[in-house]
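Weekly structure sync - notes
Attendees: PM, LS, DV (DV joined late)
Agenda: review two folding runs queued last week.

Item 1: First target. Sequence and structure tokens pasted below for the record.
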Amino acid sequence: MRMRPRLCVWSLIVALSACAPNRPETPLAQTGHGSLPPGAAELEAVCGHTFRRPLAVQSVGHERMRKVIAEQVTRHSSDMQAAETFAKAFGFISTDTTVTTSASVDLIVEQIVGIYVPEDHSIYLRDGHHDDARMTQSIVLHEMTHALQSDTF
């Protein structure tokens, strides 16, 4: 599938954008308010930004993950329409293709094992995909980057 390299490029751009300079603040971990997953202090140090809110990490089953993703797709439907327009304009999908909400949810559910939801400041990890502790930490750190972006920008 041709999408995978493009997704990697977009993920890299998103991750790097969280590392732009920012005004100094007291990191949440130093204030004693709330909790952050392991690795938060290192991420703050590397990016030069600080978390402003506690961050929850939840392990959820396939159906709960599907519900979380469906809520996000519905909430951000204008973004999905823009993504469809972009995909058609650059030939990633046929111009006569209609991308439905259901198809978008199906595709996303099958391709991701973690998602950050800004509305409840939580990271959701799908059960059964984090047997390797290093892989789980990598997924959580990636999603924490999105949380840091949300707190910063």
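Item 2: Second target, run right after the first with the same settings.
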Amino acid sequence: MADGEQAPSAQSPAAEVFDSGDALFSMNGGMQVMSWNEAAERLTGKPAAEVIGRCCWEAIAGLNPDGSAACGPDCAWIRSLRSGRLVSSQDLLLDTARGLRRVAITTVSANDRGSPLYLHVLRDEGPAERPSEEAHKGPLSRRQLRVLELLAEGRRARDVAVTLGLSETTVRNHIRAVLTRLDYALLGVHPTVWLERYTHPVLTELLTWAYTAYYFLPVLLAAALYRQKKAGAFDRAVFGLVLCYYLSYVGYFLVPAVGPRFTLAHLQTVDLSGVFAADAIRETLDALERFKQDAFPSGHTAIVLLVLVYAWRPLRALFWFFLPIVMALIVSTVYLRYHYVVDVLAGMLLVAVCPVLERRMFALWPRRTCDDR
């Protein structure tokens, strides 16, 4: 490389086409950052290499004036994009290299060799005061109570929006506010913020590994029951777990909400860094989990507790082996900021319901094996 020649930055080819004196970054159709210009680096304090390939909401983490998360996998901009519309310029609060700033964001739609490409232009509009926790405290408003009532009737967020004459995005914001305020009303603190006093890389590492047990414990239970030829218990366990998965997804559909890692990000001051593979595990899970509105109920809590229920009688030794892992996993859902405490309580309620439904529904199902309950 010749003297005085600058090394190329960590950009995609799109970065050579789009640039601006203002902070600018581009995204592909999957909302992954493809380019991040020098002005964006100066404004945010984040080098291009740190954000390229990450989702846009992780890159800028914008806030509404009340401190709630404006950027996220279900933000107004992404929802408008999915419906074929682009929103006009909007003001957000961003944590930048010079503190919290008011930033106007303008969106431009482009085309990159037949693939969608979107540009965000960020214009600094001056310093801003950091929102306090007050916006997430206090009793539910009349509007929030009404949203809660309609959701309890089994209506979807879209139907609630039509009934109340609101946008669907506003209804989803109300849902997030309800979950946040319920947590505070129950405990007098925001649990994920309060747990920061106990945050430690070793604990984060252990709880991250415990969180992944959700993907393995049901399989291990089914394999153990099958291997020991407990056909009746195997059939009921598989039936009950599938039913629980289904009902938890019904919950995500009726109460679409992202977890506190998005809504309370502006209040969190301690990073969740591990010591070995925790960071890579969480990044992998985030990349694989494209649907992020899965906070309520906590499916992780429901499934692993149900594993314990079905292991208790036929596999008592396996139950005691699973128990500490399950307890750590439940703690991890809040510690790692994936869930509110009310999500966990809802998951526990789901566990109380599923075995009852399983027994009644399974009794109607044709069986080929004897009952070895």
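Discussion on item 2: Confidence is low (pLDDT under 50) at residues 1-16, 369-373.
Action: LS to circulate a short write-up before next sync.
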